[in-house]
Structure formats: C-alpha cells, structure tokens
## 1
Amino acid sequence: MYKLNFKTDGALIPAIVQDHKTGEVLMLAYMNQEAWEATVTTGNATYFSRSRQKLWVKGETSGHLQRVKEIRIDCDDDTVLLKIEQIGDAACHTGHRSCFHKKLENGSITIVGKPVFDPEEVYKT
Amino acid sequence: MYKLNFKTDGALIPAIVQDHKTGEVLMLAYMNQEAWEATVTTGNATYFSRSRQKLWVKGETSGHLQRVKEIRIDCDDDTVLLKIEQIGDAACHTGHRSCFHKKLENGSITIVGKPVFDPEEVYKT
C-alpha cells in the first residue's frame, strides 16, 4: 500500500473528488489510513467522516457510490485526487451534482445548477 | 466579505486550485481569514503557508501568480475552489504543471507529464 504522509497519528488527509470525464470538482472529503486502504482495495471512494467520526463509504446510505477510475497523489504525499464515476449523478448531500455549487461574485452567492435529486427522497429518515 | 466557516480560531480551510480553462486540478493549499480576504480583494490567490506559518501570495518568489477567475464555495462553507489562470504555466514547486503529477497504478507511482520549468532556475537560492 502506497504510504501517504499523514504527519501525525490520527491526522486526516484531504481528498479532492473530480468527475473522471468532465473534470468537474464534485467535493472534498478526508481520509484516515483505513479510508485510504479501503479506497485503494475496494475501488469505492471511502472517507473518514469528521462529523460522525467513523469510516464512511460514500453512497452507503444513498446508493450513490463513487467508483474510482484514477488516483493521483500530490508532490508531498499529503493530498489525494480521486477521479471518479459518480453513481446517481450527484455527489452533494443537497442533491446538487457538485458541493461547489455556490459561486461568489461581488460579495454575493449565486447557486449554480439545480439539484439532481431530492435529498428527502434519497436520505429517508 | 463572505464568511467562511473556519470552525475554530486559527483553523485553516482547504482551497482547491483548478485551471479555469482546462479544469485540471493544480494544487491544494490552505487559507486563514487573512488569506481569504487577500484572495478576494486582490484577485491573486493567497494562502497560509503551514510550513512557514505566514501569509503566502502564490508566486511571490517565482513570479508565477495565480489570477483568480472564479470562486466557488462548498455547501457547508468550509472548502474553497479557485478557478485560476496560472502565470508561468506551472503551479507546483517541482516545476510540474500540477502538484498531482503522481499517478497510482497497481501500487506504483508513475509521473505524469514533464516539468515546465527548472526549480533551481526559478527559486534561486
């Protein structure tokens, strides 16, 4: 297993998630060693959820898995770039394709694009 | 100034840096409040250097500034995506266009692309 530079025990490494075809940046999440190993071995993007403090297979609730097509690592081994296929088309829990749907212009936010799915339908509570 | 969610005093927010034309992800850096304000007001990507623990105008040494073309913010305001024009063509201190020039395949790294510049020439020490 390729060794990332986690720097300290328990440190997390950011993973940038990009659509493997369009290059659109979909989200950013964090990995611990376990998440990194799971991502590489299963081919399903797996993160460490900071809010829930546990391993998080992206799409485990919604079914919207991220299939890893290519893995890039940065010059100093402390950031990962995943090029993925997003099952279900949307990476954001809001239903938008990308988490980066807020565009800042002249101090104001414009929402780019419309939700692909209704979060209340997908995350039935 | 649009308020990012820094969560705690002194916390840093990751900024993903993407070529505004090609969509190539070039690097990831971190911002504190001062770096965020400088980026928005000057239009030159400005970060907080974790190794040097100070404000870092990208390109201040090499002349390879990053001109900000578009700013995106993620759903929960704790990550920034900058779409930029990279002056001098390379964002990485190694001379590569992207810091993400290490491709992981079957456990091994392949270097993608060749350096655009010679770091020893650009960062004269």
Note: Chain A has two helices and eight strands.
## 2
Amino acid sequence: MWIYEKKLQYPVKIKNPNPTLANVIISQLGGPDGEIGASMRYLHQRYSMPYDEVVGILTDVGSEELAHLEMVSAIVCQLTRNLREEDIKGTPFATYFVDHTTGVYPIAASGVPFDMKYVGVKGDIIADLNEDLAAEQKARVTYDNILRLCDDPDVREPIKFLREREIVHYQRFCDALRVTQDKLDSKNFYACNPSFDKGCGK
Amino acid sequence: MWIYEKKLQYPVKIKNPNPTLANVIISQLGGPDGEIGASMRYLHQRYSMPYDEVVGILTDVGSEELAHLEMVSAIVCQLTRNLREEDIKGTPFATYFVDHTTGVYPIAASGVPFDMKYVGVKGDIIADLNEDLAAEQKARVTYDNILRLCDDPDVREPIKFLREREIVHYQRFCDALRVTQDKLDSKNFYACNPSFDKGCGK
Amino acid sequence: MWIYEKKLQYPVKIKNPNPTLANVIISQLGGPDGEIGASMRYLHQRYSMPYDEVVGILTDVGSEELAHLEMVSAIVCQLTRNLREEDIKGTPFATYFVDHTTGVYPIAASGVPFDMKYVGVKGDIIADLNEDLAAEQKARVTYDNILRLCDDPDVREPIKFLREREIVHYQRFCDALRVTQDKLDSKNFYACNPSFDKGCGK
Amino acid sequence: MWIYEKKLQYPVKIKNPNPTLANVIISQLGGPDGEIGASMRYLHQRYSMPYDEVVGILTDVGSEELAHLEMVSAIVCQLTRNLREEDIKGTPFATYFVDHTTGVYPIAASGVPFDMKYVGVKGDIIADLNEDLAAEQKARVTYDNILRLCDDPDVREPIKFLREREIVHYQRFCDALRVTQDKLDSKNFYACNPSFDKGCGK
Amino acid sequence: MWIYEKKLQYPVKIKNPNPTLANVIISQLGGPDGEIGASMRYLHQRYSMPYDEVVGILTDVGSEELAHLEMVSAIVCQLTRNLREEDIKGTPFATYFVDHTTGVYPIAASGVPFDMKYVGVKGDIIADLNEDLAAEQKARVTYDNILRLCDDPDVREPIKFLREREIVHYQRFCDALRVTQDKLDSKNFYACNPSFDKGCGK
Amino acid sequence: MWIYEKKLQYPVKIKNPNPTLANVIISQLGGPDGEIGASMRYLHQRYSMPYDEVVGILTDVGSEELAHLEMVSAIVCQLTRNLREEDIKGTPFATYFVDHTTGVYPIAASGVPFDMKYVGVKGDIIADLNEDLAAEQKARVTYDNILRLCDDPDVREPIKFLREREIVHYQRFCDALRVTQDKLDSKNFYACNPSFDKGCGK
C-alpha cells in the first residue's frame, strides 16, 4: 500500500498559463509513453518476477512514477489556470475544454485517452526488463521533445528533473537485466522462463 | 507523492489456484469499474475541485484505491500460481496465458485492456461527484457479482473487505456532495461552475 | 420500435457556417457524454430494471435522446454547409474533412470515434440510476462549455434547449432513485439486487 | 425525432434461457456489423446526401434498424433470464456477468464494446452507398452464422425475420445506387462529389 | 512471402516541408480508409475465398497496397524533413511531434492510431467483396479530399497516381464480384456461403 | 515496394483442425506482440533512422515479418478448415465464428482487434532500437507460450521456426544498437537525437 505525503517530489510553480503547451505536455500523463503507463507497467510486472532485487527495483520505480504523474498533472493544471473564455474560444485547447473544462484528464497529446495497450506485461523476466528499458527511453524522448517545444523556465525545470529520473531508471533496469542474465544460463538467457522451464539457467 | 509500505491493506492468502476465477476477478483490476480506473479518477479530479475538504476526500480515497489495486493484483497472482501446462491447455485461461504467461496484466474480464474512457473528469464539482457516486456503486456491483461466483473463503474475505470499502467511499462522496450543495446556491446547484461563473453560489 | 416523425424536437436554423465551432459541438454527438451514449445507455438499461415506472422513464428519456442526437447532427451539418476549399485548407477542420468530407460522423471533439466504453450498464438498479444521474450532469457540463465558447444566437438557442432537457432528465432520474429506495430496504439500499437476492428489499 | 411505440417489430418469446447463445447473438447488437452500427451509419449519412429519395431511404432503414436493435436486445435479455448462480459460475458467461450482471450491454461476441470505428461516413454519396451495401451483406452473414449455431425455434424465427430485412435493405441500397448513378455522369460516377465539384454529373 | 525491391512504385520527391499537410495525408496511412487497412483487409480475406481468380486478385491488390503504404510514408516523411524547432512550436504538428518526433507513425488525421476495427473479414465471398468495393470508394474519397486541400504539385502527382490505382482496384473487385455471382445461383447470390452450405449455387 | 512470391517462408501443412488452438495462435497475428505489429513497427521506423545499415536491417526484418504474418495466417486458416457446425456450436470458437465465419481476422487471443497502440515509433534511434529489442523478446515469449500449449507437431515445427527467427532478429537489433552507440557520444548515447541536436555524438 501507499501512504500519501502532501508534497510534490520536485516543486512545480508556474506563473504564466499556456494551454497550448499544456496540450503537448499532457502526453507525458496519459500518452503512449507517459507516467500512468510507466507506473502501471512496473507495479504490475512485479508479480511474476523471480528475483527479489528485481521486484524491489520495480516497486521503487513504479512508486516514483506515481509521484511523477502527480507532477505532470500539477504542470498541466497550472498551465490552464485562470483562463478567461476569450483565451479558449477558437483555440486548439477548446476541443479539450468542451469535455473536461479545466480539469486534468489523462490523454495523449493527440487527444486519445490513456489505454493499457501501451503497456506490456509478459510474465517473463527478460522480455519485461527489455520492455522497461524501451519504456524509459521512449519517455526520455518525450521529455526531450517537450524541452524542444518549451521556453518557459518554470516548466523546463521540473521537466528536466523528470527527464533525468528516466535516465536513472534506465540504468537501474540495465542493472536488473545484468543481474538476471548472471543468474540465468548466460548463453541462452532469452530462451527460458524460470516459472515454467524447471532447468532454466541451472 | 506516495511512500510505499510493504504490506497489503488487508491480507491475501489463497491456498488453491483457480485461473477461471482469476479471469473474472481481474475485471476489478482493469475492467470498466475496476480499481485502476477508480484511483485515476479521484487522483485526477482533485485538481479542479474548489473546496479543500473535497480535495482531501479525493486524495484519501484515490490513495486507498491504489492499495486496492495492489490487493486485486495479489489475488489474481495467487489464483494463477503453480499452474502446470496441463492446467492451462484448452481452458479459457489459455487466451490470457499466451500473451501474459502468468503475469498480472490489467484487463477487463472480457479481455479488453484498461482504457481511460471508463473514467470521467469534467472539471465541474457537481458532475464529478455524481460520477464518483456512480463509480462506487458500479464497483460495489462488480464485487457483489464476484461474491456470487466465488465459494473459496480465502478469496471471499478480501473481496468482502474491498466491497465494504466501496460503500464507505460512496458515503464519503455523499457527504462531499452535501457540503458542496450547501456552499453553492441550493436552487441552482447544478447550473454553475465556480471556476468560470464568478457569482456562482454567492 | 420507433416511428420517425420528420421534424426536429426544437428547430435548428443556422445562417453562418463555423467549422471550428462544429469541431467542438460534435462532442455532444459522439463524445464521452454525448447523445449517442445517452440514448444507448438508457435504452439498454431498461431490460434489467425491476420496476415498470423506471422502465418507462428510461424508455422516454432514451427516446428523447434520439431526438437530441438528431438535433446535434443538424447543428454540426449546418455549421459546415457551403464551405469552400479555402475555408478548410490549413484549418483544424481539415483533419476531419480529409476522412469525412462534410458528412456528420460521431466523434468526440478530440477526434476519437464514439466508443461504448463511455456507457455503463451494470444490471443493478441502484448502480444504473447513479450512472444516469452522473451522465446527465456530465452532459449538462458539456452544454455549459459549448455555451461558454459560442456567441452565435442561432446555435445558442437549440443548445440552451438541450441543456435544459438534461436538467429535467436529471430530476426524473432523482425521482426514479427515490421511488427505488422506497421500494428497497432503505437501510441497505445499495446492498442488494432484486434479480438475484430474493429477499432484497422485502 | 422518433415516437416510441411499445411493441417489437416482430415478436420475441423465448422459453428457455441459454447464456452461451446470448454471448454469440449479442454481436448483432454491439458487434462490428450489428444493429447499433447500422442505425448510426444510416441516420448520420443522411446529412450529406444530395438527393431526397436517398435521404428518405436512409431515414427509413436507419429507423428500422433502431427497431432491430430493440429486438436483438430482447433476445439477449430473454436468453439470460431466471439464471441461478450455478448456471453462471465457471461458464463463459461469467466474464460478462461480472461486469453487467444480466443487464444488456452492447458488445461484440468477442467481448469488445461497440466502437464507431466500425462505421463509415465519408460525405460522398457513391462511397457511402457502397459502405451501406457492404454493411447489409456483413450483417446478413452474421445472421447466417447465428442460424448455423442455433437450434431453438423461438430464437430462429426472429433471427430469420431480421436476416430477411437485411436483404430487403440491400436491395433498397442497390436501387439508391442505381438512381444516383443515373443522375451523375455515368462514365465517371465514382470520380466526383456533387457537394464540391460543381459540374459533377452535368 | 514478399521480396523487397528498393524503389517506390511511383516516385516521391517533395522539395518543401509542410507539416500541416502531412497531418492530413497521414490518414491515408493509418486512418479509417488508409493503406494499412487496405493491405491487411485483402491479404487476410484471401484465406476464405473459394475461387482461385479471386484469391489472385486479393493477393495482387493487397501486395500493391503495401507499396502504397510505403509511398504514403515517404510523402509524410518528406513533408516533415528539415524542420526547425520554430517550425513546430505552437503549431498543430506539435501534438504529433511530442510523441513521435519526426518519425512516421500510422495514425488517422484525427490522431487516432490505426485500429483493425476499420477492416472487415467475414469469411463470406459476397460480403467480403462488397466490403472491398466500399473500401476502394472510401479510399478514393480520401484522396479526392487530399487533392482538394493540397496545392503542391510535388505532392499532388503521387496522390493522383494513388487515387487512380484505387479506381482500378474498384474495377477489379467489380469483376471479381461478377465472376462470383456467375458461379453462384444468380437468384440467391447473397444467401449462401460455399464453405458451409454444400448445395450453394449448384 | 514488395514483390509477392507464391510460397511460404517455411511450409505449413496441418492435418488436424483445432479451433481452440487457432484461438490462441491468432494472437501472434493480431495480438499485442504479433507479426502485424512487428512488420508495421520496423517498416515505419525506417524513415527517421540516421544510419543506412540500420535502415537496411529494419527493411529486411520488417519484410520478413510480412512473410511471418502470412505463415501465422496459414496456420490459423488450416486449424479451422473443414469444421462442421457441430464442431463450433457451444465452443469458445463460436464467438469468433459469428463475426468472421472461418475467415482469418487479425485479433489478439483475447478477441481484441489489432491496434497500432501496441507499436512505438519515437523518431529517435536509441529509443526505437530499444523498442525493437523489447518487441522481439515479447514475440519470443508468445511463441514459447504457444509451444507450451500445443502438442501437434504439424503446428510446432513452423512455430519453432518463427521463434528462432525472433531470436535472430533480436541479435540483429543488438548489433544495430552497438553500431549506433559507437557512432554517438558513448557517454551520453541516450541523451541526444542526431536530427535535432546538431553536435550530438560529435
């Protein structure tokens, strides 16, 4: 279980609303490589992992991604605060506004609601760790692209923090994969599954 | 942010695997009225709520739903433990197994992956609280149906606990709605939105 | 069955095309809280309702929502009439136009086609009526938002009519819930289902 | 608008419940070629049709499809009536039951909720009429397949009625296409659109 | 199997980037009537076709659609080449860019990823050929609409080539349907399926 | 473009129909890690790759995956051949049969139609190659699971061939990643994108 602590992992204090930028950043909440997918991926992959250290990494990283989704939500919320109707009418934000007013609803930048199809849980340690490495790289690219599109330092600072964390996570999953391959038969490491193939890696 | 505490909100200790039952219960993880949808609904609706007590209720309940999704995952995981290939071959569980082995992947009982389309965030306190009341009732029905289909006391006890919590949440959202209506103009309580209509409820 | 009567429930006569506004209003046709979802929700929930007066309300309201989806379609159609290619090229309407020309296709404002995942049918009278109350509030908010984004009186008048009807429907579902709770055991009204739990409410 | 008449287009009186058969027939409600898609296709294609007789055919057929979806719902409802929990536990119907009890929810036989992606509205008379011809043939095949899987005469009779109607609709759309081609330049009939290409067919 | 030949079916050489136009044209890659759907439709329908000449047509046309999806991808790629960040920031292309940079990802113009729900495979020759006729008409309309929205001759030429091919395919499917009807009982041609109904067409 | 050669990459000759097994194997056609997703992933990622050898690998592997989807389709087709109605009635295959007869339609084992959401194209060489490594591992697990559920040697042989090819592809993508990292600044290899960050890797 998780205990809520009433503070963001990294502070978000945005002075100027910018709904056009919010429309882009929201992808890191509910988009294909966003934080909801990330937390759900790691917190669910835990159950079929055969090694405690890998379960531990997934729990840590998955819980941290919950903190990240709260940060991204806070960014989106602050970028759409205090808008007047004239700031919305006829802008691209209007298509979001009609269905969600200025609430925070988890979608991709394209407008497509979050879908668990973006997430893989194969119940196989090698496949799942490769999925996790890919996920962190894809999230890193999304943050890179947000930084390419955003000048406001109030937004850039928390985004840079989030981007750095994805790189740290990538390295942790690299370690997890190395540990796993050492435990399994190194020659055939992607050819067996310890839950089903009894002699696997022995 | 959330701090992980390594214990389930209510213990799950299932002795007998039952993949057919897991196929049904998984809906309360990734189904239309499951715990992922519940936590995401409340944790995101928070941002557009005008009253602190309502934000507090949504944060509390949303964080508790995270604990519930961990419980449902644990139930699904334990019901599919130690299966032999003969327990899977030719059974309805095989269509899940081919894509997820015995990992825990958030889908509805129908096999459809979780989709945020099940969740409403309207950025309007009256609409969102009505959504929450409905969500709790729908989750309650799902637990009722699981109980109708399940005889194993090891499974029934945590499910009964989860069902009770939905009723408590329903009552909390009833309170939140009452508080809100008292603060708004009681005659027109569903006709204005404090974020946009300045005189609303004054 | 339904007999078609060749007239709109409320007249729609729009003089000036406005594809940008059509892009927003279309959400009340095929969006998360639009009229297709509304009619399908009520017309299908009817089958598991234990009380005739509730079946009657659902049939009435569901049939009226069919009339509403015809009104919203007429609004969208009239707002995209007589466009020249220059009115479309390079505008946000172009992404709709490429796939549907100026036909009326049921999508959300985000561009996502209508999906029945927006609709709940639980086969439980208390849950389904709570769903209906939420649905009416969410539709009401969508109409509120359309009014916030729209100045054209030709469009505002039918939208205001539709918004008023949602409030009337909300009140009818409040009545239905009251009637239902009187018939069921008032203390435990959300804890049983008359189709399965024989003594329920007796 | 549509006036509800409290009778089915063709009577449905099923004596014996059969949830396994209901699981299959429900596809003709919410499946890829089901009656919801059919009614929504025709009732929305109307708006961009240049000829009154074609608008009339689409309105007629679309309204009749509403009557058909009511018939299919009635069949599904009657096939799942008076089930005891023992009739559901461990059967394939259990995955439906957990989320919808014995309510009628519009899905495909696969369990996937209805999605408007099954429906095409191109805003082009030739393309839309070809879509309609294909839709009627696909619905006809679904009814053929239901008849291949169903022995109960109480179910077969209304299904045969529905199948016959699809063939009548196919013929009406053939007529509509013929009328249209006569009006357009017969050599180039699929190469222009009267709404955009002014000299088209002149 | 397919052997790759390193050349486009028709040359694509676009001098001027135009991400707004790419946003529209991409629908003919991953949209409801795009080339991915087309190739997948024909290449999969082949398996249940009873006549060799129809299998041959489906294989030919399906393989050609693979070449078309390569052409549409090349158009999208070339229209988004050499963009500077200033060309993207604040434009409608930004919502695509954040998730895919300038990679080519198969979506509809609306932003919705390609979904096989757009494609019908009924396992019935009459229904499937009607589906194919409709598909070609719908693709033709999409190309018509692209031409209405596009002035750049470098883009128009390959699009006109693709449009012409759809008309040729339509004619081939007309021929296939004629051949099929001649082989089946002409009076009842849409009322039987040679795979199941043994006497069908004899 | 691709030239069709009328032979399978590896022969498929199945003597005994087995629709239950077809229901499982079809996931390697239209499921989350199936061959349609694989071919579409590689053939579209090509366009944003900066190095010719990587483009070459993606073209090769993507074209081979087209051959694989043809093999999986052939397996599914042959497993559902010559069924009598009695072989389908009341079996899990009936929910597939009602909508597709014995045609081959690309879905996951769960019944969910193929969705491009399973596929990532980030327009970034490091992220895309990590995605590809994960994709090959996930496909390998699916084939492992099929082998765990399948005794028929006629089916096992082509499945084993397909599984081996995924391992070869994994190794080719490992090589591609190594080549790429050598070309980029080895310390920061996942921190830049040669298309946007000019000094990247210099």
Note: Helices of chain D lie at 19-25, 27-30, 35-45, 52-79, 85-88, 94-100, 125-149, 153-183.
